[in-house]
Specification:
Blueprint: H1 4-10, E1 31-37, E2 46-53, E3 62-72, H2 74-80, H3 85-92, E4 106-107, E5 111-119, E6 131-135, E7 147-151, E8 155-157, H4 164-167, H5 171-184, E9 196-200, H6 205-216, E10 220-225, H7 230-236, E11 240-243, H8 249-254, E12 261-264, E13 285-288, H9 293-300, H10 302-321, E14 326-329, H11 336-347, E15 355-360, H12 364-372, E16 379-383
Parallel strand pairs: 9-10, 9-12, 10-11, 12-13, 13-14, 15-16
Antiparallel strand pairs: 1-2, 1-4, 3-5, 3-7, 3-16, 5-6, 6-8
GO molecular function, one term: oxidoreductase activity
Pathway: Cofactor biosynthesis; ubiquinone biosynthesis
InterPro entries: ADH-like_N, ER, GroES-like_sf, NAD(P)-bd_dom_sf, Quin_OxRdtase/zeta-crystal_CS, RTN4IP1, YIM1/Zinc_Alcohol_DH_Fams
């Protein structure tokens, strides 16, 4: 049997499999309910409509997913306010073929758990009726809608042990953590055993996933969070839990043995001292998820923003390399194959969803306010349909 990666690499349907053509159902001619924004701003820009254009398959590797559940991430709050609009609009329309403001009406939401409804010609790994999950890139229409269009390479079979509500809490944070730890940081099951890893900002969605992934890889994990999240951190397997409110965090961490790896979900002033906590000249690595890339492009434009970003990361990388440690930036990267690996960890019981609160589809503005309040312990999930 042909493996998934081989099919994806070739980009064509194997001759041993029947061709599945482009499907255009009667639904494809109609509209669908969605939560959209027509401008950037605060929570009052969210608007419910029943007239959002139903997605259509334009490319042979695309699928349409009926959304059962979605979830919110901090990037949804940022995008609601216009963060990253310059870079994302360039990705949406790189040749500037369309008029301005073509992103509106814009649907937010990156996570989806649901059922395949339609498949493009080259999609042989999925079929209508399959239960799947995915994280949709931020330059595409999001998942706070009845249906969403996805690239087949971004989609994976949903873990069998999870409901749609549970599954929707994991893809975006899981892939973000996977990118930082594995793709950028070079950590994996075979080389992580015994390594000392520090996670700054461990109680959020990415942090709770990262703690579990690192423990599944047998690392020693030190989690930094507030006191009220310490019980959760211990339950997820963290070896040491540091309350950043109980005193000077830098001084508390300096009393511990040096680390092999730091994952920074906080940014800001932490970067000025955190790298001093790494073992020098041992391959130790600091990876931050808080970067100025999109902000630079919003403020300076595409060309100058990219130049400023390149100079910044290059300067910091060289500076810290001379001090004996590696400095890296990491970003969310959509990946169906990575979700395949995450699904195996979930089904084996090594990673569990951490959900703070679940809202109905009619309560999307309330869910945004909940996320905006901060201090969430896990994810904010939206049940798009009543069935879980």
């Amino acid at each position: 049997m042909l493996c998934r990666r081989a099919v994806r690499a070739v980009g064509q349907v194997p001759l041993t499999l029947p061709l599945r053509g482009l499907h255009v159902s009667p639904q494809a001619q109609s509209a669908m309910p969605s939560w959209v924004i027509d401008r950037y701003g605060c929570n009052d820009v969210l608007r419910f409509t029943r007239d959002m254009v139903f997605p259509s398959i334009y490319y042979p590797n695309e699928v349409i997913i009926k959304v059962h559940a979605a979830s919110l991430n901090p990037i949804d709050l940022s995008m609601r306010s216009g963060y990253g609009a310059t870079a994302l609009n360039m990705k949406r329309d790189p040749l500037k073929m369309k008029s301005m403001d073509t992103e509106f009406p814009l649907t937010l939401g990156r996570d989806v758990s649901g059922v395949i409804m339609e498949c493009g010609l080259n999609v042989s790994y999925f079929k209508p009726g399959d239960e799947v999950w995915a994280a949709i890139p931020p330059w595409k229409q999001g998942t706070l809608s009845e249906f969403v269009l996805a690239n087949g390479n971004e989609v994976s079979f949903k873990p069998k042990c999870l409901t749609h509500t549970e599954a929707a809490s994991l893809p975006y944070v899981g892939l973000t953590a996977w990118s930082a730890l594995n793709q950028v940081g070079g950590l994996n099951q075979s080389n992580c055993g015994g390594k000392r890893v520090l996670i700054l900002g461990a109680a959020g969605g990415v942090g709770t996933f990262a703690v579990q992934l690192l423990k599944a890889w047998c690392a020693h994990v030190t989690a930094v969070c507030s006191h009220d999240a310490s019980t959760l951190m211990k339950r997820l397997g963290a070896d040491d839990v540091i309350d950043y409110k109980s005193g000077n965090l830098e001084q508390q961490l300096k009393t511990l043995p040096l680390f092999d790896f730091i994952l920074d979900n906080v940014g800001g002033s932490t970067e000025t001292w955190a790298l001093d906590l790494l073992k020098k000249w041992s391959g130790a690595t600091y990876v931050t998820l808080v970067t100025p890339f999109l902000i630079n492009m919003d403020k300076l434009g595409v060309a100058d923003g990219m130049l400023r970003t390149g100079v910044t990361v290059g300067t910091k990388t060289v500076k810290h390399l001379f001090k004996g440690v590696h400095y890296r930036w990491a970003f969310f990267m959509p990946s169906g194959p990575s979700l395949d690996e995450i699904a195996q960890l979930v089904d084996s019981g090594k990673i569990q969803p951490v959900i703070d609160e679940v809202f109905s589809f009619s309560e999307v503005p309330k869910a945004f306010l909940k996320l905006e309040g901060g201090h969430a312990r896990g994810k904010t999930v939206i049940n798009v349909i009543s069935k879980k």
